[in-house]
Amino acid sequence: METELLKIMDHKRNQIGIATRKEVHRLGYWHDAFHCWFVSEENEKNYIYLQHRSNSKKDYPNLLDITAAGHILSTETIEEGVREIKEELGINVSFQELVPLGEVEYSVTKPNFIDNEIAHIFLFENHKSFEEFSLDKDEVAGLYKAELNHFSEMVLGNRKEMFVEGFEINELSEKNFINKVVNINDFVPHQLSYFQFVIQKINERLISNVNLD
């Protein structure tokens, strides 16, 4: 993973070369990433799906995160980033099934880690059951869903905790179904502006769906 090659850009998004993922995060080069959030409607409630990152992940292990996400390789287009869904979650989704939400630039700086990322964000309206997912246990430890309103309130600082339901996988890739309560400390610490953007765009899409109905 650390040796995979990524396109690197300056702050104006001009490509200036190619570097390994390790160098990208060591030196803070701007790079492209694919983010896809899953949502569903069940019993007149909207839900958002959360990936539980594997404990073996180098960055942010054992935390809840975007449903499926990853870096765009130097040989790939943004559209080809859809492979992350199959690789991480084990389901087939075409790029044409995704709803583009837009792009967000954000930076995270920690000791020996600088993440300057251009996130290309998409939405997938999910109709699959948990039984249909087959997770890559090296990348993803589990998958959960939460009420979208509760998620929004929590990541925006208006709720201390929320209920999630889903499953974890064991060493044999068997699913153990779990209901539990989580709080903001259980999440990858994306910037508030990122969450604000994602929530706004998801709600706009869901409202437009209602109006079309």
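The above is record 1. Record 2 follows with the same two-line structure.
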Amino acid sequence: MDWGSLFFKFNGRINRAKYWLAALVYCVINLVLYVLGAVTDSAAVQALNSMVGIVILITSVAIGIKRLHDRDKSGWYLLLFYVVPGILMTAAVGMYVTMEDATLVSTVLGLATVAIGVWAFVELGCLRGTVGPNHYGPDPIAPPAVLPTRPPV
């Protein structure tokens, strides 16, 4: 699989190694942008950071979908892993700030956010994909099929 397919295609499967390779690429890009932003505080760097952030968001969705496909799960789980924690955390902070006795509810919502994050980490980054082909394609780490050869006559 080439880099373009890895980051920009939404179908197929990838194994854990390619998932963590993409995570490493994202970390390096963010580190470079952070250092660049710290050295020069210009609008151009902020605009570049925003554009790169959008590209990283789109490619991380592609990476996540392919990783879920390797686990024989629908890519729609990414809504649970990416969107729901943000909603829960926003609700937790909003309740804590606006209501007097909302500490317990805010804590429960925060813990639910952490639980979903741990589940996403384990599901996407730790568990092995389906052995053999599944609904989404062939096993990405299966050895290539070797055709038997006939001995010379």
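The mean pLDDT is 91.
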